[in-house]
Amino acid sequence: WLRCTTFDHSTWYRGFTLFLTFLFYTSYHLSRKPISIIKSQLHRNCSTLIRPPNLNGTDNETWCDWAPFDQDNYKTLFGAVDNSFLVAYAIGMFFSGIFGERVPLRYYLTIGMLLSGLFTCLFGLGFYLNIHSIWYYAFFQAMNGLVQTTGWPAVVACVGNWFGKGKRGFIMGVWNSHTSVGNILGSLIAGVFVSSAWGMSFIVPGIIIASTGVLCFFFLVESESDLLIYSTLKQSIVAALVRTMLIAVYVQEDNEKEPLLQNSSSNEEIFSSPGQSNSISSEPAEEHTKAISFCGALRIPGVMEFSLCLLFAKLVSYTFLYWLPLYIANVAHFDPKEAGDMSTLFDVGGIVGGIVAGLVSDQTGGRASTCCVMLILAAPMVSVHSHIRHHWLLTMWMLLVCGALVNGPYALITTAVSADLGTHESLRGNSRALSTVTAIIDGTGSIGAALGPLLAGLISPTGWNNVFYMLITADILACLLLSRLVYKEVRGWCGHSPRHRG
């Protein structure tokens, strides 16, 4: 009965942890999205609007814009604000995993979400305080980028602690939809306030992520071993009471010489009978408690290839994330809310792409091959999208397809691949590498996430077609970086060598 109860508790906590970490990282992305929605509100085409008669000022072309984004260099300024976040995020990510291996994940996530909520709200307060300094907005974006690095390594480590490799691709593919769900919710919430009071587009998401930080502090169980500790403590108390009663009745001195409960790492050992406990070896298995070094994580086979591949995959994904609403507003002349709503189709496609990538890679055992095929298909889709932008029914379908093909590899690498490599057989059972490996992979990818929007801001004045050519080039480079791993997987399928995931 005790074994059955513990299994039920473990299963329940596994699902609950999956739900909580989904909620946590949804709030992370939800608080990142508003900046892309309000761009088309900060700089508008004022000639199409009716100017209020009581408005002071003589500039009829920029009266509706928000300084300092009211000048011709507004795209460069938008790029600077984006990169304040993304560069800080990329730099911080390399250190975040190291801290994540040494600090309780519950505290780490809680502090990160509370601080992220604070900095997101402070950015939005610029509207109500009538602040027009680019340095104010860039500074709080950079601070938000630093504290948001607490999220990804921690949530991946939590999920990796609870789930084995068997269905990891599919489970993490479904779970990774939090990225797209957060983007969608962030777009919708920001769109509600963008035309009336854009400051609330940041304050509301800031309050949401801070609230999830409070939930994290009270409810997150980091790993099954923590649950084991709680269960052991509870069973120890009960066993101690029972033993005290037996001693009082039978006065058996031998019982006092036996340990109450053997230290163990499985449910069978905790709830086994005393006879079974004695059969367990008195020499405990050596546990690898020392966290892996940065260089040690880099030497894990596949880490470098997937990290560099993610750099280019994230370059494409984050260019869409930060510039797609403005692109739609400029080309289709949609208002900011409509452009933000349409851009969510890209994230809807990303949900499907992440699930499909995880399911296919689980069935085939080819993480690299799955990523490579989707990236190969993504390149022509991005090219087609750039040529049908005036046919908006087709564009909606292409946004869905591009979202699936672009975000599928990105989702697979940052979840299942990171978890596989963080528990690679070369680590010989060291369970404290997952957060560091995840941080290295996502940190390298974040360099691409910073470069993409920056290059888009510099290239877009020369024409949107040139931006799409940049994205196609990035997709091709991502494929080439995986060629060695794809070759190994194909040889494994043909029976030339053992097949290993990651």
TrEMBL record:
Entry keyword NAD: no
Subcellular location: Endoplasmic reticulum membrane
Main location per the UniProt record: endoplasmic reticulum
Compositionally biased intervals (Polar residues): 261-282
InterPro entries, A to Z: MFS, MFS_dom, MFS_trans_sf, SLC37A1_2, Sugar_P_transporter
GO process annotations (BP): phosphate ion transmembrane transport
Chemical reaction(s) catalysed: D-glucose 6-phosphate(in) + phosphate(out) = D-glucose 6-phosphate(out) + phosphate(in)
MF (Gene Ontology): glucose 6-phosphate:phosphate antiporter activity
This protein's UniProt keywords: Antiport, Endoplasmic reticulum, Glycoprotein, Membrane, Sugar transport, Transmembrane, Transmembrane helix, Transport
TM stretches of this protein: 12-30, 77-99, 105-129, 136-163, 175-195, 202-221, 306-324, 344-361, 368-388, 394-413, 433-455, 467-487
Ranges where the record places region Disordered: 260-282
Top-level lineage group: Eukaryota
Name listed for the protein in its UniProt record: Glucose-6-phosphate exchanger SLC37A2
Organism for this UniProt entry: Oncorhynchus mykiss (Rainbow trout)
Gene that produces this protein: slc37a2
